[in-house]
Design brief:
about 0% strand; single chain; 2 helices; about 60 residues; about 85% helix; mainly alpha
Length: about 60
């Protein structure tokens, strides 16, 4: 159960990261940089969780 939950949360984090990457054209540069940094961290966390889920599912 924990492993499946890890995969679902990882997928949600990846989708949240892609949402943060979407920046409207009228956004100020400081907000764009902040959102991009947050998106990178959230995306990497989600990807690590998905890889962990896939690794544990194999074994």
């Amino acid at each position: 159960m924990f492993i499946r939950l890890t995969g679902i949360i990882g997928l949600a984090l990846v989708l949240c990261g892609y949402y943060l990457f979407w920046i409207s054209p009228d956004t100020e540069i400081s907000e764009a940089i902040t959102r991009t940094r947050a998106a990178i961290v959230v995306n990497l966390s989600g990807n690590i969780m998905i890889v962990y889920y896939l690794f544990k599912r194999q074994s």
